[in-house]
Amino acid sequence: MTAATPLFHLAFPVDDLARARAFYGGLLGCPEGRSSDEWVDFDFYGHQIVAHLAPGEVRPAARNAVDDDQVPVRHFGVILDMASWQDLADRLQAAGTAFIIEPHIRFKGEVGEQATMFFCDPAGNALEIKAFADMSQVFAH
């Protein structure tokens, strides 16, 4: 018997489930799982995220400087391969997504070089989608 790869689970607040469905299910293409009048599960690239209706919990994240960018401290995301990252960046740009940090290469020529982009869902939750040409660099220092 082989051990399964652990999956990540994240629950986060939203102020409108219909807009969360349109964003995560429609724009990002995340299949919807179970749901109720209070929450919706999404398959976020093989991981489970849950949008919970909690308007009082929705608030903007503080920001810290990282490589000359103001990165939202509270954010989540996924690491894709470069081709999938570029496809998503193109789709988000075509949809008119307002980026916090435009798609670009961070730490160019350094340890940890990565493609990254930051944007918010309709409730203001910040997401970072990144990619590495060399996946061995994910935890390099």
TrEMBL record:
One Pfam family in the UniProt entry: Glyoxalase
Superkingdom as given in the UniProt entry: Bacteria
Residues in VOC domain copies: 6-132
Name this protein carries in UniProt: VOC family protein
Lineage of producing organism: Bacteria, Pseudomonadati, Pseudomonadota, Alphaproteobacteria, Rhodospirillales
